[in-house]
Amino acid sequence: MLGRSPQGVERNHPEENRVPERSAPEETPQRGTDPEATVPPRTPTPRPPANQPGHRTAPRHQPPSIFPVPQLTDHDAKDPAHDREIETLAEFDEAVGRRGSLDGYRVQAVDLTARTPELLAVATAGAVFLGCPMHPDALAKVRADGALVFPPVPDLPFDPYRGLLYTPDSLFQHLDQGYDATPDALAYAWFQRTKADGDIFASMLRSIHDDAVSDALDEHLAGARVVGVMGGHAMARGTSAYAGAARLGRTLARSGLAVATGGGPGAMEAANLGAYMAPFQNDAVLDEALELLAKVPSFTPSITDWARATFDVRDRWPSGGDSIGLPTWFYGHEPPNAFAGHIAKYFANATREDGLLARCNAGVVFLPGAAGTVQEIFDNATPNYYESRGEPTPMVLVNRAHWTEKLPTWPLLQSLAKDRPMESRIALVDTVEEAPAALARLSAK
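Below the sequence we write its predicted structure tokens.
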């Protein structure tokens, strides 16, 4: 238990650990003895002054790190793709074959049960294995080498050490049995059971998972120009607003930007759908997809039917474009959309919100939404105001009536930006069709 010493551990006698007093009077009684008894005066051992014979300076102790980094070769230093994380069997084989050692590497959620001969032969001192299944012989050997091993956590509906982002297929596996059988639903059920039980182990697993997802997201987006599209989850399929958001996502993706959304339904799904349809030269394909999806307008009352409609579109038009979704199990009643090719799903919504906006280095388009979208506007405005992430990034608000009358966010944003560098990086447009040009104009300033 935190705050208590382990039971049954032999401790040093308290008298052996007491720091000697500088001037203990002779009359001071010794604890635990006759109060009339006295402690004889201490005779300090003389210490030679510094820089004199006999003086010894205590050496500066530098404990060896238990997390050493690999000693990179010249070839490695010239290879910007080289890092010390191994997240696939192919990367494991490449590291073993090229370097002949795993010293200092972090092997992350890779099933190594088929690599027992390699593990028995290769040096693993200083390696870290995070949730990697392996044969008992290999496990004993790498531990004997001095590797640090975090074993897989049993009976868990998610992998806290995952090295890669989720995909629609991985989150919606077993959808044919109903949404409740999918890994996404099982992880949400686990979160509902543990989010308030005070179990530090459960909260630690959530934190490790979210940090691993952030690491995978950074690797996936390295060098990309990312534009965010924010908007409400209530935007229904079959509406003109949904179609407009989809066309926005398609236009942004065709301009070479990586589209990122909150990964949920509504406006978020529409933008991911548009990015998915971007590679198809026939623009009518998107219209056909919109018609198919309109048959199941919302994820209520059936997430299963809603998700199946998505996969029907993906099956009819495979090999669509990639985009990013960042949903959260905090709002687990809102399922992730399957049009985002890569999904960074979090337990902590605060980590997800800040991480999404921080990675939108090409700006953010805000479609009409409610409280969540208003929060995102000012979560994005704050670092732009203080320039804490560098130069302010573009912010485009769509629908003048919504942002000046229904939810008058724009006047406050204008007042906040006045006479600051961010003033030239905000814009309000009437229609979604105007948003790409406004974003380009703000980016050029």
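The chain has a mean pLDDT of 86.
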